[in-house]
Amino acid sequence: MDIESRFALLQNTYAASIAEAVNTYDRLKVLDTIVETRKERQAQTAPFLNRRLGIETVEDVFERLSEVYGCANWSVERADSGYVATAVSCKLCALSRKMGGANPCNGWCLDPMSAMITAAGRIDAGSIIVESTLMAGDCCKVLVNVSVERNDTAEASPTHGNDGVNTRSPLKRITSGCSILLC
Questions:
Q1: pTM, 2 dp
Q2: pLDDT tens across 67-122, in order?
Q3: Element (H or E) spanning 143, and its range?
Q4: Main-chain phi, psi angles of 124, to 5 degrees
Q5: Measuring CA to CA, which residue among 166, 92, 94 is closest to residue 132?
């Protein structure tokens, strides 16, 4: 087996392992507790992971995680106020749906990425907004506002889409995170 095939096999096995764990946690009714516990540690591990993965910018977070974990197919575009990252497919979401439907997005993908973005870009966590996920919609979309000055006590900043302030459905704010287990 060549190295690329081995790497793809490891990526798929890793995503399946996380999906199985998430669905087990959900069936045991401890998923929310585990996600919160993980979130508490994630801001501490983000700088380490950024160094190990060579992540220095917002774009690096999405691009490197797509490359290393092969899970979500993130594309990142520069916007007036920062960045818009979009994924239209994700192995972890697809596998989790097949194994029971528990949501792996926050604890194993979005929270960890938020912490890495915060650490790499010195961006206030309230400036990172999840507009949609593949578990609930047709894409995962994350807005990163870099035009707001960092304020660790700020709860949130305005949410802007391509057409101005976003007034659609309620948005989930990522408030911290990073983990060794990413998608």
A1: 0.79
A2: 999 999 999 999 999 999 999 999 999 999 999 999 999 999 999 999 999 999 88
A3: strand 140-145
A4: -60, 135
A5: 166
